[in-house]
Amino acid sequence: MFKIFWVWNNKEDEGLEVIEEEIDYDNEEISQEEWQIALDIVESTKEIIIVSPIAWVELDDIDISLDENILTISWNRELPELFDDPKNIIRNSECFWWRFSRNIILPENLDLESIKAVLEKGILYITISKIKFSSQTIKIESKA
């Protein structure tokens, strides 16, 4: 059993908030979980950009797929071998390992053929262009 102290700077009160949490590390229990990928979505006038930090993952281990209008991002972050050595004592474990996944329901106004993904300095950028609809004014005729 380990005690972890989470500390946040509370800007409203200009003070620190400390939360104490006890963690019981059980490798088999944690390894069965699937973690949700953290991401941000930014919309410009021309495109949607999905941004997700990805650390300690090889490019070939990242899977991005599209099924109709659902975009799925997933990867598996392998636990380092030093965790498997029974002689090692895990004193603290705050890093997230194992499988990560996220489904994003995309709006209908996107050009799904234009999806581009770039991994730069540990950040995944997925860019999807918007469909440009023509606009016009429609004159109403009057029949009397």
In one word, what is the shape? Answer: rod-shaped
Identify the strand order in the major beta sheet: 3-8-7-6
Helix content: under 10%
Total tally of structural domains:
1
Mean pLDDT across the residues is 79
Count of DSSP-assigned helices: 1
H-E order: EEHEEEEEEEE
Tell me the structural class: mainly beta
Query: Regarding CATH, which class?
Result: Mainly Beta
CATH topology description:
Immunoglobulin-like
Q: Provide the gyration radius in Å.
A: 23 Å
User: What composes the largest sheet?
Assistant: 4 strands, mixed
Uncertain segments: 1-10, 23-32
Q: State the end-to-end distance.
A: 85 Å
The assigned CATH architecture is Sandwich
Strands, count = 10
Explained architecture:
- There is one protein chain.
- The protein is mostly beta strands and 144 residues long.
- The protein has a single domain (27-129), classed as Immunoglobulin-like (Sandwich), CATH 2.60.40.790.
- It is 3% helix and 46% strand.
- It is built from 1 helix and 10 strands; from the N terminus they run E-E-H-E-E-E-E-E-E-E-E.
- The chain has one helix at 27-31; strands spanning 2-10, 15-23, 34-36, 40-43, 47-53, 62-67, 70-77, 98-105, 116-120, 123-129.
- The chain has a 4-stranded mixed beta sheet with strand order 3-8-7-6, with no helix packed on it. It has a 4-stranded antiparallel beta sheet with strand order 4-5-10-9, with no helix packed on it. Strands 1-2 form a two-stranded antiparallel sheet.
- Strand 6 and strand 7 (70-77) form a beta hairpin.
- The radius of gyration is 23 Å and the shape is rod-shaped.
- It starts with a strand and ends in a 15-residue tail after the last strand.
